[in-house]
Structures are given as structure tokens and as C-alpha cells.
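thought: fold this chain, then report.
action: predict
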Amino acid sequence: MMHLSQILHQTLSRIDGKGYKAYKDIQGSYEFEEEGYILHIDYVQGDPFASPSKVRVVMGQERADFPHYTYESKSREVATRDFITRRFAEAITRHSKGSRGSGKSGRMGIYTPGQEILERTSAFIDDQQVEVRFTVGLPAFGRKIAGRQAQSLFFEEIPRLVKSAMIFDNLDADALQQHIETNEDADAARDILRENEVVAFVADHSILPRKSGIDPRPMPANEVIPFESPQSMRWELELPNLGKITGMGIPTGITLIVGGGFHGKSTLLNAIEAGIYNHMPGDGREFVVSDPDAVKIRSEDGRRIEKVDISPFINNLPLGKSTRAFSTDDASGSTSQAANIVEAIELAAKVLLIDEDTSATNFMIRDQRMQELIHKNEEPITPFIDKVKQLYNDLNVSTILVMGGSGDYFEVADQVIGMNNYKPEDLTGQAKAIHQQFQSQRDSEGGDTFGQVTPRAPLPQSIQPEKGKKSKKIKTLHKQALQFGTYTIDLSSVEQLADASQTTAIGEALVYAKKYMDGQQTLSEIAERILEDIREKGINVVGNKNSGNYARFRRFELAAALNRLRSLEVRNNID
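observation:
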């Protein structure tokens, strides 16, 4: 039921000084006629120390007046929604008075984007209206309602936020245009990659290093060496807005990134793995663009594995234990890395991104001397070096690999990029010559083909979001940790999660996925059906229809969370 804003003002006066639970009386929708928007108070917190209340503001386009070009395509719509969210977050910093009482009283918040431009549920725009979703800590002193402070919040502060961020004429139109065009150009670049069998592109003059391991913003330009493509690998892109740009194109196949320590090998790979997302103007990596189905792989000691067919890499275990449906609650480095690769392939990954620094050594290589000492019939592990080419030839899965410790990989590489003081060089010819001059004496242990990838079907009864009396307890602890029922899902090794709002959406999607689980549909099929629902109905389809805390995720990160849920049970055709 719609009320005039005066009703909200009167209600706040009436409940001033009462117990906090009386705030429930303000839940509902209110028309702020003079300001030109409707305020929806969707959820009222039960305590000043509890999670803050959830609020939406909806403004008609007759007042917001965003030009059609700002949302005429999906790419432009996503960019504009992202821009509005950022401006609203900035407005909170500028205009909000912050804490005004007990607990979270007076604090307002919105899911603040990082460097990536993601499709989020914090803001929406179409021909009819603009909507922003945010949180409000309803003011209290102790556990008594601070009605006057709440009136100031709803009738002074929020109108200022709305005016700053939701009316086109009050925004920096040039900055919005750049935001839109940067996003649109990155989307176009990613489409061009696929058409030309290129798995990654790094634009000339990109700034790849970040400020620190915990600060994803670019390092100041005067402290870094901008990226400059080797001439032999230089590629030209024609983008719809920026026009022609040049940079290094990495083709399909097997690519090594080599070089001395601290010369930029991992920095380049990290930029490529983040290139599955678009980045905001000024990030320095706006046009570092990767295949959307590129997956970072690493070892992960201690993770749970549920009936994964790791036989292409690990077989002939002692006591005849099968690896066709391998399970463990405490995986080793090699078994976890094997499972991570197979699970990515199960979800149709097109590119594997691997850094030797985060890999199990015995999984990556067995040199000649070790082969002489420990014969293959005594070693269950087939090293990655003997499978990487089969992955490409048999399954069309490319690999980009940081390698500083084993020249044996020169034999399988299609191209070799050398990083020297953060400058890339094409060392393919030199690496091939070295391979010819110093022939490897190790024996290939990979057989003739990669081997079978066995699909798995999750069982719905194993997805248990319940905790105590609650039918669903899902909480994002931080970007890489998710409480799901009585379990904590550790996502610390899932390195391509960009934002905690993705993790929040994934938690809801794990429950939503049960509607498609029948013990027959595979994990890949279920993930695709969820993403199809999101494409048709929006991200909120997986959970709360009014939540502003979700962001778009990939099938790989969804599956990664499910695979790390310790209650998961699956069926595969080896059972």
C-alpha cells in the first residue's frame, strides 16, 4: 500500500522514544511528491545492533531524465547501473552524518564497487525509472527509537543522496559517457578475441601492477613501467568507441610466461586472470581482456573432493584404490590441483591459468633423474607437462603458464613470453632453439590421449542450508568465505572472485540450484540453467527479490563453491 511521505513523518513522531521493535510500523512504501521519488522500506531491523534495514528509492524517468543512450544495450545498462552505484556511495560519504546513536544508528551503506564493472542489484535503470537499493541503520538511543534523528535521515539526508546520484543533470555526464564507452569497448574486445582464436589481450600502455596485495587500485604511473607489446606479438583491435588500439595478443594453445624472479611474470598472469571482468576507467587494466571461460588453477591442500574422476592425472594408487570417482576430505597439493583442473573442464573451461608458485611441484613435472629413480609403475601421478598438449589437442583447452623453474616445458609450448624488468619479449624462437640444442631425456608419461572427463550429478539432499531452527542460514563472512548452514565454504583459493556481492549471490544460488537437482542433471547442466534464469529474470531470481547485495557470477565460481561444500554428494556414471 502506498502512503504519502507525511505518514512516515507522523509515524516517526508517534513512535519516538518507544521500544525499537516499534520501528516495524514504518515498513512500507511512501511517495515523496516534491522530491519525485517513492521510498520503499522493505525490511526493518529488529535491533540497533542487527543488520541494517533495507531501503529502495525509485524515481521515474520524467524526473531522473537519463538519456536513452545510457541504457540502450545490456553493456551500457550495466555500466550506467555501476556508475550510479558508485556515485551513490560517494554521496553517502559526502552527505551522511554517520553514526547517531547506538549500534548501527544512522549509518547508511550501499554495496560499493571495486575496480570491476559488474552487473549488480544495487541499481537499475530502464525507460520508466531509476532504482537504487541501500541500507539504513535506524537511529536509537540504547534500544529506544530516536524518532527525530530518523526524520532527519529520511527527510534531509536521503533526499540529498538521491538528488546527487539519481538525477542525470546532477552527474558528470562526461565521466558517465567514459564509463559506458570503456565497458562497451571491453565487451567488444572480448567478442573479437573469440572470433580470432585469441585467449587474452593486453593493451599497450596498460598499468598492470597494483598498489599492494590488499589494494587493487593501480600503482601510480610514475612508479611503474607501462606495458608494451613485443612487435612480433602485437595485435590491433578496432573498438566501437576508442577506435584502434594495439597490444599483445595471446593465441590459443600453450603459452609460457618466463623470466627472472620479481620481473613481472605473476603480475602479468594476475592481470590476465582479472581480464574476465571489465574494469573502470583509470584502472590501468581497462583493456586487459581475457576469454570469459578462463579459469585460474592452483593447488589447494586440505580441500574436500567429491567423486571427481582425476584418472587422467592420478591413477594406480596403492591397494588398488580407484581414482575414477575420487573422494577425500583432506586433499594433497597434487590431488587438489588435479581435481581443480578436471572440475574446470567439467564446466567447459576454455583456458587454464597456472602459476608454478601456487602449484604442487610433483604435479607439474617429473624430471629424468626422478623417472630413473622412481619408475612410472610406482608413481601414480602423471605430471601436467605430459597432459597439457593433450588438453589442447583433444579438448581445445588452452593454457597460460608462469614457469621459471623447468625448461622442459619449452618442448610443449606454442609461444614463450619472457618478462624482463616488466617488459615482455617474444622468446619463442630462443626457447625452441634451446629445446633442440638440449634435448630432454625424460620420458613422456601421458599416454596417447588426455582421458575421460566424467560428468557428476549433485544430489539435492546433500545441499543443507539449515542451521538450528532456521530453515536457511547463509552469510557472507568475506569475499572468500561463506557460511552455509552448519558449514563454512572456504573460497580462499578461488582467485577470480572479484567481490563479496558475488559470494552472497552464489550462496543463494546454491539453494536455488536444488530445484534443478534430481540426481540425473549434471553440475554443468544445472549451472547453465541457473545462468539462463539470471539472463532472463535478473540476478535476484536466486534469492531475495529486493536485495541490493548481489552481483553477477560465473558458472565456475558457483561450481567451485558447491564443490567445496563438505556435505556435497554426487552421482557419476562410475558409481
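thought: worth noting. The longest helix spans residues 173-195.
final: C-alpha cells above.
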